[in-house]
Amino acid sequence: MQHLIVIDNCSKNRLDISLFLNGKEGVVLLPQNNNIGLAAAQNIGIQYVKENINATHVILFDQDSIIKPYFISNLVNEELGLISKGIKVGAIGPSFYDPDNNQDYPATVYIGPFIKRVKLGDNPVEATFLIASGCLINLNVLKNVGGMLEELFIDYIDVEWSLRAKKFGYRLFITPKASMAHTIGDKRISLFGRTVSCHSSFRRYFLVRNSFKMLRLPYIPIGYKVRETVFNFLRVIIGLATSSDRKKFIKYTLAAFKDGFFGKFGPCKYNF
């Protein structure tokens, strides 16, 4: 990796970040005056690379992403191997593991409204969508598919982009030769023998609201829409049952349904 573009989304410790990155070779800090959302921040970084750096690819990372040696070169080599087979690669991402138990997450493949969990072996596995963090994307693909959907602000961004890329005929892959730690949700509970991820009331607002946007997009498969409609209601019920502040949870959830129904997206305007 030759260049690192850091988008500071109006962090509370922005001065510390600036001092830490100051003078580091190949690092560019692009501070924002407001929290413009994850999608907009990713687009700003991508656009900066397009306009200022002679690069062929970008890799997206979260602020807490930690990678291992040869992570990037392995992604690049895996992509080249797929392309050499005549595969139209849209993006390739790492495998993820749970840092609490070191268990690998399987690749997710949607078959209508059902999910098939595909365990990773030695070779890349095709997936329905990729998690943005650690994802290698060719700039030509971004030129054809477009950037991230900024209306979503934080949730469903990578899912929407992945499904849009598939509409253009691109295929998405996960490789076991590059891995990252990833925790889903703010906490997890065991329910009927299954581990269920729970999100905060604030985060649930975006998940519920943005699901309405996904339902409106013509390139999102019907099966996915059906599944998300059913499971969003189930997640709300589970979230309500496990929330430490149910009144707050209900307020954010009702606001999410209202904004989603009336098409009001972008940042959350509530502070319950």
TrEMBL record:
Domain Glycosyltransferase 2-like: 4-78
Keyword Glycosyltransferase: yes
Gene3D superfamilies: Spore Coat Polysaccharide Biosynthesis Protein SpsA, Chain A (3.90.550.10)
Keywords: Glycosyltransferase, Transferase
Record bears the keyword Glycosyltransferase: yes
GO molecular function per UniProt: glycosyltransferase activity
InterPro entries: Glyco_trans_2-like, Nucleotide-diphossugar_trans, RhaTrfase
Superkingdom, natural source: Bacteria
PANTHER family noted in UniProt: GALACTOFURANOSYLTRANSFERASE GLFT2, RHAMNOSYLTRANSFERASE WBBL
NCBIfam families: rhamnosyltran (TIGR01556)
Name this protein carries in UniProt: Rhamnosyltransferase
Lineage: Bacteria, Pseudomonadati, Pseudomonadota, Gammaproteobacteria, Enterobacterales
